[in-house]
Amino acid sequence: MIRILWSKSRQEVVIVLKGSHSIKDWLINLLCWQRSATLFGLDYSIHAGFHYLLRQESPPSHKLDTLGLSVFERVLHIVTPLLNNGMRLVITGHSSGGALGCIIGDHIERRHPKAIKRIVTFGQPAVGGWTFKQRYTLPHKTYRVCCDLDVVTFMPPLPLLYWHVGKILWLYNGRIYENTPTFIRLGRSFISWLIRPFSYHLMSKYIRNKDFFDDH
Fold first, then answer.
1. With contact defined as beta carbons under 8 Å apart, do 32 and 156 qualify?
2. Domain interval for residue 190
3. I need a labelling partner for 151 at 20 to 30 A (CA). Which of 123, 137, 173, 213 fits?
4. What pLDDT, on the 0 to 100 scale, is given for residue 199?
């Protein structure tokens, strides 16, 4: 679920968080109500599914590990001594892993100011509501990469109840767009879904696939 890597020579720590990879994970993503994040030292509410993922017990993965720590506590147990030694932190994650990275990063930033270099997420759903957006401490260091028509980036589908944070980098039609509003992305996505069957008729599509014919 999470890997933590560090380099003493570069004085840098990297937290990598995996996204949903099982039926259980996808079902957890459907827990769209919000729960208070005070358990994680934060003054807002977050997606109930992400709350569950962070507070679940972390199974031992090393001979020195013991039972009893949550996933959230295990991450802090590993990262805190490294940050106390002056290392900087980068967080990256895919899908729900990106959402968890934002929560972990916000907690760490409040206790170790300026320790975080950046948070980069890929295909990330929204984490919390308007209060979360207002109180999140790292919008200037958070980058959300969204690829084309990735439906998960519109999740949860509850307008005004969930808000994204940070800078969005939208990879669409061979270009990168910055901070494109959600309603514009959704509108373009909807139009693309409608016209996609006709787009395969364009000569450019045939030219792009000409190598298959050359090999044949």
1. yes
2. 182-216
3. 137
4. 63
